Amino acid sequence: MAKGKKDIDSNEFTATERTYGDSFGVSFFQALAEQIAERFFTVGRANEVWRLHEPEDKSSENPALCQLFLVDRRFVEEDGLEMRLAISFGGNPFLRDVPRGFLPPPILPGKFIFGIHIVGTKGRQIAMYDQWADAREAAGCETIGRAFEIAEAILSGMSDAEYANRACSELDGPCNVQLSDQRQVEDFEIVAGESL
Q1: Model pLDDT, residue 24
Q2: How far apart are CA 128 and CA 135, in angstroms?
Q3: Cross-strand bridge partners of residue 77
Q4: Rounded to whole angstroms, what are the CA distances from 145 to 3, 87, 150, 151?
Q5: CA atoms of 110 and 137, how far apart (whole Å)
Q6: How far apart are CA 39 and CA 24, in angstroms?
Q7: Model pLDDT, residue 37
Q8: Between 151 and which of 5, 15, 72, 87 could a Cys-Cys bridge form, CB atoms 3.0 to 4.6 Å apart?
């Protein structure tokens, strides 16, 4: 991260930084605005490419598309890709009384839900491999900040063994869980399909 920019989730800003910025002239508010704009641009790109929370009811007014997408730092290596779990937060896209196929998406109550997805990363690119591996209810989640906390808790609540079981498709061998420094969706270029 460039000097003068701090993670917007951090509370480590001094009074001087809040008032004057750093020696490069980047103010606290300018850095915050840049990070927010980048995050919303990337989530907008995820909505455009993956359409995760797009409602099945095409006549739905004011749909709540994906508002947050968090990629776990853990991964399992498979065929040259880093397979990871990711969490999205947005509107509940599923209608309850629609006939489903063999592997239906998780149908949950509520206006909003958390989606659990399997993504593959290679370098700075990220692609979707399983759009709706699982989901969690989002009752009582009313802010993006709270959604971020819950998304982190969902991911950190999974043991490495459970994580490997979900992220790895190889059933005949062990999948070793490793750590990466890339975590935010804005760390990646979003690509369509399984095109890595």
Answers
A1: 43
A2: 16
A3: 82
A4: 24, 14, 9, 10
A5: 7
A6: 23
A7: 47
A8: 87
* Domain locations in the chain as residue ranges: 48-190
pLDDT at 82: 93
Token representation of residue 133: 């591996």
Cβ(137)–Cβ(108) below 8 Å: yes
Please list the ranges in the chain whose pLDDT falls under 70.
1-41, 171-173, 182-184
The DSSP line for the chain is --TT---TT-----HHHHHH--TT---HHHHHHHHHHHHHHHHHHHHHHH-TT--S-TT-SS-----EEEE-SEEEEETTEEEEEEEEEEE----TTS---SSPPPP--SSEEEEEEEEEEETTEEEEEEEEEEEEE-TT--SHHHHHHHHHHHHHTS-HHHHHHHH---SSS---EEE-S--BGGGSEE-STT--
